[in-house]
Design a protein that fits this description.
The chain is an all-alpha fold. It has two helices and no strands.
């Protein structure tokens, strides 16, 4: 199982969510492609 990086900082989470919106991908799909635990984007 691939371990995904967790986002712990609100500023970083907002940057990631904005990047996902720009691509038109869903946040979870964008996070998987970029090695991020998608659940941590909303924490």
């Amino acid at each position: 199982m691939n371990e995904r990086r967790k986002i712990t900082d609100e500023r970083e989470a907002r940057r990631c969510l904005a990047a996902a919106r720009k691509t038109g991908e869903r946040a979870g799909a964008w996070a998987r492609v970029h090695g991020i635990d998608g659940r941590s984007l909303n924490a």
